Amino acid sequence: MSNTVIFTALASGVIVWFLIASRLTAKSWESQDEKGDVGAIHTAPERIGLWIFMAVVTSLFSLFISAYAMRMHVGAWCHITIPNILWVNSLVLVAASIAMQRARWAADHGSRSGARAALVMGGMLSVAFLAGQLVAWQQVGPSVYFISGSPAIAFFYVLSAAHGLHLIGGLWVLGRTVSRFAAGAELVDLRLSLQLCSVYWHFLLLVWLVVFGVLLYL
Amino acid sequence: MAYVAIADRDAPIHDPHTFFLKYIWSQDHKVIAIQYAIVAISVGLVALVLSGLMRLQLGFPGTFHFIEPQDYYQFITMHGMIMVIYLLTALFLGGFGNYLIPLMCGARDMVFPYMNMLSFWVYLLAVLVLMASFFVPGGPTGAGWTLYPPQAITQGTPGAGLGIILMLISLGIFIVAFTMGGLNYVTTVLQARCRGMTLMRMPLSVWGIFMATILGLLAFPALLVSAVMMTLDSTLGTSFFMPAVMSLGEKLGHNGGSPLLFQHLFWFFGHPEVYIVALPAFGIVSDLLSTHARKNIFGYRMMVWAIIAIGGLSFVVWAHHMYVSGMNPYFGFFFATTTLIIAIPTAIKVYNWVLTLWKGDIHLTVPMMFAIGFIFTFIHGGLTGLFLGNVTVDLPLSDTYFVVAHFHMVMGVSPILVVFGAIYHWFPKITGRMWNQKLGMVHFWMTFLGTYAIYLPMHYLGILGVPRRYYALGNTDFIPDSVHSINAAITISALIVAAAQLVFLFNMIMSLRKGEKAPPNPWRATTLEWQTPDTPPKHGNWGPKLPVVHRWAYDYSVPGAKEDFIPQNEPVDPKLGAGRDHGTHR
Ligand code: HEM
Ligand SMILES: [Cu+2]
After folding, report:
1. C-alpha A118 – ligand 2 centre gap (Å)
2. Do the beta carbons of residue B373 and residue B419 sit within 8 Å?
């Protein structure tokens, strides 16, 4: 649980910082008149929404990992032997993240075809990653019934499945962006989507690396 | 899309025309709010009926043969879970949050209306899955609302097969729905406030709902994690929570899992959950008291800070639910300390409510009666919380009716009183009709006195040692005969309170159909939702121009002003001058 408590402490820290930055000490009963600046952050609501969503997902994975750490010390625990393909998968996901970043840069430089190519590339690499994860699943245990044998393996399935589902959610948004490309949307209108996709991909990469590290070293 | 919510309306946006788009598949926050409220109140009625059945069994054991022990456990579980999650959480956030946030912040809608709509439909799916568990073989789960393993998924507990699985799936779906809604509420508060509406000018209702949503977003994942892992333990035979168990003479396949781990996860969600319900109630009641006492809320800034402090602290007290679970005793010391610390901001809020009433021009309207009733029940439940927060006091009281009394006072009766107060308060805006005041008063007194008659004696039962979650007490030495008479009396009170809710429903339906037409601002309130051009507000809320806010939400009885309230969107009158201190001028 301590991981989670640290995470929530951090999250609360961010919230408190934000609130203080937005003049929570204002004596609102004394000053009246209209103020144009209401302390909203000058950015698209979608971006705020994404950051909040990432906080929620962080909470989810911190809790899974806390559960892992607590369960380890209880009993009938044997470590999992990591299938080598996970190293390859991790590299593929890193490449996907780079591709998403390049899509974003291309859009910033006004290169429509470059952005689209990089975006599709990122999508394909992500699908490859998911396929690789399925192979890893197969290698870890010959059948689902195997997962009852070892809690570490069960955790591996649960964590990678949770991560994979979040990636699939990202792919759905990515697919919509690609189809907006196909429908001929202006690049300026797509920039926000590309930025948010790249942020989300980096985030999921980070989550995966942490999960992988936990499986390896904890 | 999102900018529609913020911008002035230059070009007409496409208002939906068909009935289906307007009232069913609607993206209008007000319609979604009503949909949420109707579903939540409907399942709430199911939970109310279940509690009535439980009370019949407890008050008159052996009389109602159709209630078997396993039914009783199923009733408790479904009652608790429905009330906490599917009624209160959904109603406060999905219902009031949806209705009030955009209107009180001066926005046209939520920032992500489509996702907001999906949130409702996914919530409805969660409710349907939950209700389906009544009809599967074995019936719904009877594990208690805390769903502790190993018993929740071992044979012998009612609903240990399909019932519990449906419960867990339904919770998972609910969490998805909540997350979609929650992202909306938080982002709307952060990004879509109208000109002049700084954070510190927001009404406390919005503050409470905002903070509760943040708590929910961070805490519900803990429930999701436990639900996922318990589902796997039950279906695939993993051992996350399940230790090696002998069940009905056979050794089950599990090995080495930790039931204590489940309890940690559950309460890491569970304690913030009580504040997810409490904070919106705190916020709303502050606004009701201030409006109907014609007085600014006492200590607005402190109220905001207290909401934030409670929100933060509520994540570090969870193990006070686990004093008797066999965890390390040093933990108990730590969690007792944090638990008592959280009582400080809570107490500050209570003082400020009372001081708001002090020398106010109190109008005893129906919403005000409920708000004042809340102060009583909340102080009451809060004080028993202080008892239970101390490890040594809790040990003998844990798992007795004392705990039942505590949490019903504090998170059952109190928030429900606020819900009623809020419904009576905002109904004229939502529907354009006034209530029948007399029936409202009847409803209030029956509910308020009735719930006291139910829960006050339960403290005494708990001190005697009467255990909670027992189908029947039988003949035990330490349980005197008086307990049985008390139980019968409690049951009768419970039936009366249940009947009182029929008065409420009847009044609501009659007011909807025949109620007097409501003026736009019947309570003469300052906040923005009362200043809309139409009542009920139309799609887009504000007509062509968004409101502009010039002042905080509590300018009541300002000396020299021509009325005893100044709406937030009223420009500054230079004659009145600024820089008054509302705290001291009365
Ligand atoms: C002064 C503040 C409070 C303190 C010190 C406090 C303390 C406690 C403690 C120590 C318990 C565990 C009792 C046991 O199981 O033996 C408990 C149970 C509970 N409290 Fe509170 N509480 C406070 C306020 C609240 C509030 C505001 C709510 C809800 C709005 C709430 C809801 C509950 C619930 C639902 C339970 C029972 C859970 C269960 O076992 O099913 N409490 N409280
Ligand atoms: Cu608690």
Report:
1. 50
2. no
ipTM score for this prediction: 0.92
Per-residue pLDDT of chain B in tens (586 residues, 90 and over written 9): 333 344 554 444 567 778 888 788 899 999 999 999 999 999 999 999 999 999 999 999 989 999 999 999 999 999 999 999 999 999 999 999 999 999 999 999 999 999 999 999 999 999 999 999 999 999 999 999 999 999 999 988 999 989 999 999 999 999 999 999 999 999 999 999 999 999 999 999 999 999 999 999 999 999 999 999 999 999 988 889 998 888 888 888 888 889 999 999 999 999 999 999 999 999 999 999 999 999 999 999 999 999 999 999 999 999 999 999 888 888 889 999 999 999 999 999 999 999 999 999 999 999 999 999 999 999 999 999 999 999 999 999 999 999 999 999 999 999 999 999 999 999 999 999 999 999 999 999 999 999 999 999 999 999 999 999 999 888 888 888 899 999 999 999 999 999 999 999 999 999 999 999 999 999 999 999 999 999 899 989 998 889 999 999 999 999 888 889 999 999 887 766 544 444 444 3
Domain B28-241+255-582 bears CATH identifier 1.10.10.10: no
Domain spans, chain A:
3-217
CATH architecture for segment(s) A3-217: Up-down Bundle (1.20)
Mutation to test the A interface, candidates B185, B188, B191, B307, most A Cβ within 10 Å:
B191
* CA–CA distance, B18 with B440 (Å, rounded to integer): 35
As a whole number of angstroms, the distance between CA B446 and CA B501 comes to: 9
Provide, as residue numbers in chain A, all residues whose Cβ is less than 8 Å from the Cβ of B311. Answer: 12
Domain-wise residue ranges, chain B: 28-241+255-582
Question: Which of A8, A34, A36 has its CB closest to that of B315?
Answer: A8
**Of residues A182, A208, A184, A198, the one with CA closest to residue A119:** A198
* Cα gap B170→B163, rounded to integer Å: 11
B578 touching chain A per CB within 8 A: yes
Distance CA B431, CA B510 (A): 12
